[in-house]
Amino acid sequence: MSSSAQIGVTGLAVMGRNLARNFARNGYAVALHNRTAARTHALVEEFGSEGDFVATETAKEFVAALERPRRLVIMVKAGEPTDAVIQEFAPLLEPGDMIIDGGNAHFADTRRRERDLREQGIHFVGAGISGGEEGALHGPSIMPGGPVESYDSLGPMLEKISAKAADGAPCVTHVGPDGAGHFVKMVHNGIEYADMQLIGEAYQLLRDVAGYSPAQIADIFRTWNTGRLDSYLIEITAEVLSHVDAATGEPFVDVVQDQAEQKGTGRWTVQIALDLGVPVSGIAEAVFARSLSGHSALREASRGLAGPTASALSESEASAFADQVEQALYASKIVSYTQGFHEISAGSAEYDWNIDLGAVASIWRGGCIIRAAFLDRIRAAYDARADLPSLLSDDTFAQEIGAAQDDWRAVLVAAVQQGVPTPGFAAALAYYDALRAERLPAALTQGQRDFFGAHTYRRTDREGSFHTLWGGDRSEVTG
């Protein structure tokens, strides 16, 4: 078999199949491989007219079909299946060849794989890919990590198949070494969790407090999508809320069980944030909200608990409340992105990745699930000041969130009074208030820790660590 394919894809489930088609549609010869050969031939039979495909049945045939340096994309389940594929193909490759993992791998696994393959002279690229099956086919946001020299060969290909932002820029960049790409994709998914939770809370407030129907709320979201909340998730939320179930004639959202699933990346975002000491309370509340939704027995046992009596709003009051919810949603979204970018910055420092936060914001402007109009402004904020400690330190965002705070607080008051759970909105506001507070109760916490465990504390009026001899004369000694 001649070495004619410029790139190969192994693992031809929906994402892998569509990514292979995307490469072919953009003029690349694509070698195909799948554990079940029938799936390979089915792809060629159905979509062969879209481009140049080279169907292979064995690992050796697949590798032989690739031109040097070989570029081999793995699109299989994360974890052991990915390791198994690497173990199958790595012995067949030569120094300078590259393996690209396009799955949702844990960044620590990517770091391990990159280190192991580097010893064999093989480049390993952990590439986060966002946009779902449609993005894989028509243009995703791509977050590749790994050796920078691999991007010299692979980058132009990824740039061609990626989504394009409104200004035409490709939604892909070399994020950083080893696991940087999968780390950024993990945080992207964490922000996605928070974004979806906040949108869900806005929907529930509009329905349970303002009294709007799903169809009316869909119209409200469509209006919001023409302004500063313009985003993919707001757009599809309107579509979901306006959908009517064909079997029952009821609103679609009323026939779907209110139990949300999670695949792990949101949970990883929170776990790693804890390891890094970074507060991502909004993302954490979104993860916990999904977890709580799935505890059906616990929820059923608690339905009889006392709560407030809801009071209806007039038409004008409902309209005014909807405007307040828009303010609360926008402010909370800024906080979610603030927390996510803080985690990326902390991870970059911990692992010496030197991630460009402005570039990350830039490649999220198209193709990915959290694409939104205000990412242009996030990019501009980091481009103007690479050392920006927080999005809330940017004058424009600070002014906007300051202008929204009264309505944000009013929405939370209404939610508490009406008994509507809003953990995302509340966590975002608590984070904002904690950052702007002159003093936090952590001083008391340190006193308690010193009392029961002699953990010492620092003072505001002099340097050093101190411990109080609690009891007796309570004298102070230097730690």
Q: What distance lies between the first and last C-alpha atoms, to the nearest angstrom?
A: 73 Å
Q: What structural category do the secondary elements indicate?
A: alpha/beta
H-E order:
EHEHEHEHEHEHEHHHHHHHHHHHHHHEEE
Largest sheet at a glance? 7 strands, mixed
* Secondary structure tally: strands: 10
- How many helical stretches? 20
Based on Cα principal axes, name the global outline. globular
- Give the averaged pLDDT, no decimals: 95
Unreliable stretches covering 5 or more consecutive residues: none
Radius of gyration using CA atoms only: 26 Å
Quaternary assembly: single chain
Summary of the model, kept short:
By secondary structure, the chain is an alpha/beta fold. It has helices at residues 14-25, 37-47, 59-64, 80-89, 107-118, 132-138, 148-161, 180-208, 214-224, 232-242, 252-255, 265-276, 281-294, 296-302, 315-351, 357-363, 375-384, 395-418, 423-436, 442-453, and strands at 7-10, 30-33, 53-55, 71-74, 98-101, 123-130, 141-144, 457-458, 465-468, 476-478.
